[in-house]
Amino acid sequence: MTTIAGLCLGIQAEAQTTFLRRSVVEELTGTRCGWCPRGLAGMEKLRQTFGDRFIGIAVHNYDTNDPMYYRPYAANGVFSGSPGAPTCTIDRSDFCDPLHGATGDVCNDFQYMLDQPAWVGVTVSGTYNADSTVVEATTHLEAGRQLEGLTVVYVLVADSVASDIADFRQNNNYATRQPTDYPNDPELHRFCAGGELGVSSFRWAFDDVCIGSSYSSQGVNQAAPVESLTEGQQTDHSFRLTMPTKAVLRRALNKRHVSVVAMVLDADGHVMNADKRLVGLQPDAQAIHLQQNNDRQTATLYDLQGRRVCQSDSRLPHGIYISQGRKLLR
User: Fold this and answer.
1) What pLDDT sits at residue 310?
2) Overall average pLDDT of the 139-157 stretch
3) 264 touches 273 (CB < 8 A)
4) What is the pLDDT of residues 13-22, one digit of tens each?
5) Parallel, antiparallel, or unpaired for β 95-96 and 147-158?
6) DSSP label of 231
7) Any alpha helices (H) in 175-298, and if so which ranges?
8) Cβ of 173: how many Cβ atoms within 10 Å?
9) pLDDT at 11 over 60
10) 134-143 and 120-128: which strand pairing?
11) Phi then psi for 249, rounded to 5 degrees?
């Protein structure tokens, strides 16, 4: 094979496209759940560790008197068979503890899901209507290979949800325990006796709170199914989400802290990929995709200097390349 300056003039294997993966943690929690500070700590740990690759959805369905209770999630079956609050599911896989996971550290479970290939690219955006009662959400989808039976689920989540009303205070059973009872869980020490939040209930600014979705009150996803996408196909998908009407919750919200989430589910109901964006914030048009090789013929790749590149063993060095007018990260 002819080479020029170490570069070859052909590609021997096809590289189907995978995309940057973001994983979703849906957590069952509630203000009246005395052990749910463990979930607050776990979700906070995931956010700090993984940044915007973590998408949290805190579903306050432990008790119907919780002002953040959200009926459609009680009916959609996501938490059917769960051991109770606090618990979570990552990308709608098996249930695990929101701090300890199934392995002793929820970050290990999350990293495992994050390492799975994402064969669909997801980019979501949302805008308010004139009186901020409705969010118009649009999702751009791109398939890295042939995909069948896709479903798009939309969720509105709010950060910094807080109020002086007593029902917004978080119950805390850890206040009767000592930090030495949890030597391997330093995240819990602030909730224990003598800690800064070591009282029976405390005020908290709740993040990731589920306040709306494409699920009906009967738990049925009302967003249109995608059915199928061919490799390389791109399409847009839209849905109108209603903001909460409950007065006590609306007063605790700041619309600048509301985000829209789009999850793409496969035919088995697992999350393939997802995206989250503050309502009103537009996506980055220069998003970088990920590239994965297999044994078939690929589209032509170029380096950032415009040179066509490959290697005889079809294993390019890590870097950014151009294919079909878009950036690919290998």
Assistant:
1) 47
2) 97
3) yes
4) 345 789 999 9
5) unpaired
6) T
7) 247-252
8) 14
9) no
10) antiparallel
11) -80, -40
Give the 3-state secondary structure of residue 17.
strand
Q: Is the CA virtual torsion 255, 212, 164, 132 positive or negative?
A: positive
How confident is the model over 171-182, as pLDDT tens digits? Answer: 999 999 999 999
279 alpha carbon, distance to own chain's centre: 15
Q: How far apart are CA 124 and CA 29, in angstroms?
A: 26
pTM over 0.85: no
Helix, strand, or coil here: 67? coil
What pLDDT, on the 0 to 100 scale, is given for residue 128? 97
Distance of CA 8 to the CA centre of its chain: 40
Number of C-beta neighbours around residue 133 at 10 A: 12
3-state secondary structure of 100: coil
Of 51, 23, 47, nearest in space to 263 by CA: 23
CA pair distance 170, 177, nearest whole angstrom = 16
Find the helix or strand (DSSP H, E) in which 73 lies: helix 71-75
Neighbours of 37 (CB within 10 A): 26
DSSP annotation of 206: B
- Spatial separation of the C-alpha atoms in residues 307 and 187, rounded to whole Å: 50
What is the mean pLDDT of the segment spanning 202-208? Answer: 98
Partners of 142 in beta bridges: 121, 234
pLDDT in tens, 231-283: 999 999 999 999 999 999 999 999 999 999 999 999 999 999 999 999 987 77
**CA pair distance 238, 258, nearest whole angstrom:** 18
DSSP β-bridge partners for residue 54:
23
3-state SS assignment for residue 181: helix
Nearest to 138 by CA among 282, 268, 243: 282
Tell me the C-alpha distance between 25 and 27, whole Å: 6
- On whether the CB atoms of residues 110 and 46 are closer than 8 A, the answer is yes
- As given in the structure block, the two tokens for residue 216 are 């009906």
Model confidence at 227, pLDDT cuts 50, 70, 90, reads confident
CB 135 within 8 A of CB 165: no
What does the alpha-carbon distance between residue 132 and residue 130 come to, in Å, rounded to a whole number? 6
Length of the chain, in residues? 330
